[in-house]
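Quick one, tokens below:
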């Protein structure tokens, strides 16, 4: 009897496989990092073959560690880093080029040209997104325009496009030997190519990027009872398991945080930060720099939409302290170092390494540390890094309140950075509302498992999932209103210093 559901969580810096029981409790996990390839400033790439190999390895290792096999799994779900773009040959399964990561800024000229030509308004209206380097459509165009032979193969139907969910689904279901070429509505909504109302690729949008429709995957619901397909016996699970769910990581976290009602919101702290607000079946277009996106779609139900504030660099700023500056040896040390000082000592760090995403959308911005004096130490820089995570979330929360009229009463949080108690306390202080973390903080994988399990009636409905949610920690605000206002005003001054650093034609 299948007593568990599995979830592949393919993220920006690592891939993990997790298995959950009916109570939503973790049974086993295994996780491996993959290489971050940075050929030149602003370029960020991953090796798609390495990602597939890591996926296979974490699945096999986790199942072996728990003494499980494919027949113990009722279903399998996938969640993934969004917008990261792969183009590969359908016959050989080999990528034509490295995956271009969502953080990559090489498409800034493509994005600025769309605005200059008046196409930005159409993209916002149809796709709910501003023209930006963040999204997959421009990345696909860059590959078609710059990698020899790809456009000709694409027009013949030999070259396939996909975000990471599509790449993994294709490989898990056979690859060159019958692999399915599909994506779900959440990932498709991050391309600038899908119409949010029709939930299909839009010919006008495709024409803006010169992308042949034949290279695109079929768009499916996020959770589907018949499944997208089954894993193959030659694959990492060693048998046939129904693949019944796929969601972009932030949408999966909404499911994992059981944010099923309009007005419910969560903030995920990973490589970047992503604050989403469920708007139900209503498409809400933003006037304040947020994105309109599909939240999820279960089977034949109407899609649920969300407003999203996407922040490019938060947890990866802590990695930068470790890998580039060398002032900490591990992420956990950022908390102990920051606790050596009572405040930021006047230092503000705006980690605009890939420009600024929501609510600014400034591809011309670059990172800056401001307010330094001889008094300051590496502890102040560590503290300013944690504060930057929280202030960027405040930027988005304020924009969300303006768009929706909904004021946050409590912020549900998840992701790796939530293990940093000081950072979560600062977040409560900066926002002025309590911050709540669930027992299972890695809710992206849990959400993919929930969506997969719903499709096969492992869980009967979303009410049953709500019963699984339990709070683990809560942080109450400690700053007074004046502290909060002064800190945020200085943060906004620091953000302004990052503008107009890069010339974008």
């Amino acid at each position: 009897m299948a007593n568990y559901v599995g979830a592949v969580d393919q993220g920006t810096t690592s891939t993990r496989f997790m298995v959950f029981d009916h109570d939503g409790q973790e049974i086993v996990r295994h996780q491996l990092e993959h290489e971050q390839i940075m050929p030149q400033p602003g370029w960020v790439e991953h090796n798609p073959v390495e990602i597939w190999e890591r996926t296979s390895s974490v699945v096999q290792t986790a199942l072996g560690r728990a003494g499980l096999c494919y027949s113990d799994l009722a279903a399998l779900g996938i969640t993934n880093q969004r917008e990261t773009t792969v183009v590969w040959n359908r016959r050989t399964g080999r990528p034509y080029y490295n995956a271009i990561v969502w953080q990559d800024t090489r498409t800034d000229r493509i994005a600025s040209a769309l605005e200059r030509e008046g196409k930005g308004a159409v993209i916002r209206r149809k796709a709910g997104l501003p023209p930006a380097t963040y999204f997959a459509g421009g990345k696909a165009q860059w590959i078609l325009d710059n990698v020899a032979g790809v456009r000709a193969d694409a027009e013949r139907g030999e070259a396939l496009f996909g975000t990471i969910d599509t790449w993994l689904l294709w490989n898990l279901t056979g690859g060159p030997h019958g692999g399915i070429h599909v994506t779900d509505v959440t990932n498709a909504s991050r391309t600038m190519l899908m119409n949010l109302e029709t939930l299909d690729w839009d010919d006008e949008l495709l024409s803006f990027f010169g992308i042949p429709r034949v290279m695109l995957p079929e768009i499916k619901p996020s959770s589907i009872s018949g499944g997208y397909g089954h894993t193959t016996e030659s694959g990492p699970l060693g048998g046939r398991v129904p693949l019944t769910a796929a969601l972009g990581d932030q949408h999966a976290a909404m499911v994992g945080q059981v944010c099923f009602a309009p007005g419910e919101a969560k903030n995920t702290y990973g490589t970047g930060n992503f604050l989403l607000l469920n708007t139900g079946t209503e498409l809400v277009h933003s006037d304040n720099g947020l994105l309109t996106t599909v939240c999820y779609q279960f089977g034949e139900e109407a899609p649920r939409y969300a407003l999203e504030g996407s922040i490019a660099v938060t947890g990866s700023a802590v990695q930068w302290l470790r890998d580039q500056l060398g002032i900490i040896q591990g992420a956990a040390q950022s908390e102990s170092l920051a606790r050596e000082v009572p405040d930021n000592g006047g230092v503000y760090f705006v980690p605009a390494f890939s420009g600024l995403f929501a609510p600014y959308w400034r591809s011309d911005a670059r990172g800056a540390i401001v307010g330094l004096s001889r008094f300051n130490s590496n502890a102040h820089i560590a503290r300013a890094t944690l504060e930057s995570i929280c202030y960027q979330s405040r930027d988005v929360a304020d924009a969300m309140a303006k768009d929706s009229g909904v004021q946050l009463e409590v912020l549900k949080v998840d992701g790796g950075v939530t293990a940093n108690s000081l950072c979560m306390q600062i977040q409560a202080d900066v926002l002025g509302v309590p911050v709540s973390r669930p027992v299972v903080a890695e809710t992206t994988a849990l959400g993919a498992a929930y969506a997969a399990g719903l499709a096969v009636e492992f869980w009967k409905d979303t009410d049953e999932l709500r019963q699984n949610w339990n709070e683990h920690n809560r942080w109450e605000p400690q700053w007074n209103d004046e502290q909060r206002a002064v800190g945020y005003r200085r943060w906004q001054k620091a953000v302004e210093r990052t503008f107009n650093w890069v010339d974008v034609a």
